[in-house]
Write a structure and sequence with these properties.
The structure is a homodimer of 315-residue chains. The first copy, chain A, is an alpha+beta fold and 315 residues long. Chain A contains nine helices and nine strands. Chain A folds into two domains: 94 residues, Phosphorylase Kinase, domain 1 (2-Layer Sandwich); 193 residues, Aminoglycoside 3'-phosphotransferase, Chain: A, domain 2. A five-stranded antiparallel sheet of chain A has the order 1-2-3-5-4, with helices on one face. In chain A, strands 6-9 form a two-stranded antiparallel ribbon. The termini of chain A are far apart. The interface between A and B is medium-sized, with 34 and 34 residues.
Chain lengths: 315, 315
Amino acid sequence: MSVYTAVNETEVAAWLKSFSVGTLVELKGIAAGIENTNYFVTTTHGRYVLTLFERLPREDLPFYLNLMAHLARHGIPCPSPIADHRNQLLGELHGKPAALVTRLPGVVVAEPDATHCAAVGSVLADMHLAGQSYGGRLENPRGPKWWRETAPRVMPFLDAPRQALLREELRFQSLYRLQDLPRGPVHADLFRDNVLFDGGNLGGVIDFYFAGVDTLLFDVAVTVNDWCLRADGSLDPERSTALLRAYHATRPFNALERGAWPVMLRAGALRFWLSRLYDFYLPRPGELVHAHDPEHFHRVLRLRIAESDRLPWVA
Amino acid sequence: MSVYTAVNETEVAAWLKSFSVGTLVELKGIAAGIENTNYFVTTTHGRYVLTLFERLPREDLPFYLNLMAHLARHGIPCPSPIADHRNQLLGELHGKPAALVTRLPGVVVAEPDATHCAAVGSVLADMHLAGQSYGGRLENPRGPKWWRETAPRVMPFLDAPRQALLREELRFQSLYRLQDLPRGPVHADLFRDNVLFDGGNLGGVIDFYFAGVDTLLFDVAVTVNDWCLRADGSLDPERSTALLRAYHATRPFNALERGAWPVMLRAGALRFWLSRLYDFYLPRPGELVHAHDPEHFHRVLRLRIAESDRLPWVA
C-alpha cells in the first residue's frame, strides 16, 4: 500500500469545493504507485483520481500535468487533469502538491496478446504525434546523463561479469549520437501496468510521472521491452511485429530510426536495469514498496545484445 | 434533416489523419441542428461529433470552441473539442470551418422530473463558476441590443395586442440595469434538447453555439423557462424549486439577483419570443428546418408577467 499521506473525507470534500466536479461520494486509497499517493475519488459528477505528489520536484509537476492536458485535448485516452476555479491544474492538499485527474475505464492486462500490443503501438504513435505541438520542456531525467551518474554508484554491488556488462554497455551507447533522432515528449514508462484495457478497447494510458523529452524511438523500445517479452525475456516475434506495425501505420519510422533500433532496445533495457539496481541497492529512506528485481532487466539487456542481428522491425 | 453540407467517408477519413483519434469506422448525419451541419463520427479510438459551421461568423468560432475546451478542462460534461496536429481546435473541411468534438453519452429527456431539474441546476452553476476563469470575450449576440434591433422588424407581422405587449416589455426591460448582475460566459440556450441524460446521470450539456458573455441570472431564467414549464406554460413549483435549490447550493444568488429574478424570467421569455418571431416571419434563405411556433414564448412571457408576485425562488 503506497498511501504515504493519509487524507480524510472531510479534507477532500472541502478541497473539492474549489472544483466544478460535484460533491464527494467516496474516497478510497490506491495501492499502486511509487512516487505519489493516489486515491480514487467518486463525486456526484464522476470518477477521478486524486494524486498527492510525495517526491517529484515541484517545479517539474506542471510539465506532467500540462502534458496530460495537452494529450487529452488531442483525443489521447489519458488522465485529464481538472482545473480548479482559479484555472490551475496543480493545487495543494494536506500540505502537499496535489492534482485531480479523470479516472479512466479498464484494467491492466498482465498477459497481452498481439491485439493488445497493436493497440498500444497505435496509441503510442498517436501520443508522439500529438506531443509534437506540446510546448513544455523537461529532459528525460533518466537519460544518458543519469546513466553515467548512476552506474558508479551501483557498480560496487555488482559481481565482475555484471560490472563488465554495465561498463561495456555504457561505452557502446556513448558511441551513438541518438540525439539526432526525432524527439518529443515521451511517456518513458509505458509498461503493462500503465495501460488499461476496457474489454477489447484501450481504455487509457496512465502514470505520466516519468515522462520527459527524449527520442521517440526510446519510448518505443521501452514499450516493446515490456509488452512483447516472453517469459524468458526474449522478444515474441508476433507481438513485436504487431506493436511495431501499428505504430508505423500512424508514425512511420525514418531511416535513422531504423538504424538505431537495435541500439535503442539495449538503451531501454539499460535504463531500467540501472534504475532497478539503484532502487534495490540504494533505497530511499521511507521507501515503502518492494523494489523490482534488477535481474530481470539484466537478462533483457543481455538478450537484446545477443539478438542484435535478428530483432523485429517493420519496413 | 439539417445536413447542409454533405461530406463523404473518403473526405472525412483523410481529414481525420490530422488528428490522433484513429481511423474512421462510421460516419452518420445528424438530423438536429439549425446553425451547423453535424455528423456522428466513430473511429477506432472513440465516438465524436463533426461539426461544419454553416452560418456562424468565423471570427466567433474560437470563442465557442475554447469555451467548451475550458469547461471540459474543469470537469464539466460538455463536448471537448479535439486539437489537431497543429494544436488547433478549428480546422476546415469541404471548404467550411469544421471542428471535431467528443460525443457524450445519453439521450434527451422530453419530460423531466424534479431530479432532472436539480441535475441541470447543479451543472449550470458549475458551468458558471468554471466559466469565471475563461478569458474569451463575445457579448451575447441575442442580448438587449439585438432585441431593440429585431422588434421593429417583426412588429409589422403582429396583431395589435402582441405589438402592445412587445413594446411594453421592451420598455419595461429598459428600466433595469441588469448589467450590474454577476456576469460571465453563459450557455444561453440550455433547453431540454441540449442536455443528455445517461440513465439517471447527466451525461452532457451540448450545443454551445448560442453562448456569449451575459448575466449569469439570464442563463438561469432561460433554463427555468424551459425545464420547469407545465404544458400550459406556467412554472411547476416542484421542478422550479429543485432547479433553483441545486443551482443555489453551488453558486448562491446575491441580493441583486434576487431582486432581478422576475425581470429576468421575462427577459428570457422575451428573447426567445423575439427570435422565434424573427425565424418564423423572416426565415433566412436556404432555411431547411421548420421554425418553432412563436406563440409558445408569447404565452410564456404573458405568464411570467402575470406570475410576477409569486415566482419560485430560493433564499
